[in-house]
Amino acid sequence: MLEARRLSLARQSRQLFSDVSFSLEPGHALLLQGRNGAGKTSMLRILAGLARPDEGNVCWHGKVISQSPDYLESLLYLGHHAAVNTELSPTENLRYLCALHNDDSASIDDILSAVGLAGYEDIPAGQLSAGQQRRIALSRLWLSSAPLWILDEPLTALDVRAVAGLERRFKQHLEDGGMLIVTTHQPAILPEHATQRLELSGLDLEAET
Ligand SMILES: Nc1ncnc2c1ncn2[C@@H]1O[C@H](COP(=O)(O)OP(=O)(O)OP(=O)(O)O)[C@@H](O)[C@H]1O
Predict the structure, then answer these.
(1) Domains in the chain and their CATH numbers?
(2) Where is the ABC transporter domain (predicted)?
(3) pLDDT tens-digit readout, 43-63
(4) Is 109 left (phi over 0), alpha (psi -120 to 50) or beta?
(5) What is the model's pTM?
């Protein structure tokens, strides 16, 4: 189980969020919402252990994540600019990812087909469209066995078919007992019954309206 305990963060003398707590159980998703600049990415980075809050902490199975050596192995984090080597083809990018995940069993062709890149396997990623490059990055979701996925705007640049494929992958991950924390402007992609919502108001932004 993942627990956020009384998280607070200020940036550029603005309080982004204050005293935020939640817990996430296996099989459940958390949808993080809020307008531009509200602090969603900042929150995701804290939950992934990439940044520290001003106050509060994040616990994984009851232990603070900085003292939980297995946390990073349990986590798949995909940021805004998910890493894709633009000089390598989709197949080569996936070979590299397989090596990273110590996975020699994955069928690269099957994964590329699942993410809709059949026919583009051997073209350098730099010559592919933004959405096709995004699909390469998202193929990590087919490779990883990490129980906790933290994804920052994963649907950016994706077309309707790719979004549908991702929706199926999310559903399967949750049914397998995985957990998902995600920011997206298309909340319908998440199963309603297994999803909790957390709205970040970007506290001082409220005063601007
Ligand atoms: N490392 C940093 N140093 C200073 N300010 C930062 C830093 N990271 C984020 N901020 C500021 O914190 C605020 C929240 O940024 P954040 O990226 O978390 O928002 P967001 O909700 O993800 O926005 P968007 O929907 O536009 O992606 C912004 O005003 C941003 O300028």
Answers:
(1) 2-208 (3.40.50.300)
(2) 2-209
(3) 999 999 999 999 999 999 999
(4) alpha
(5) 0.92
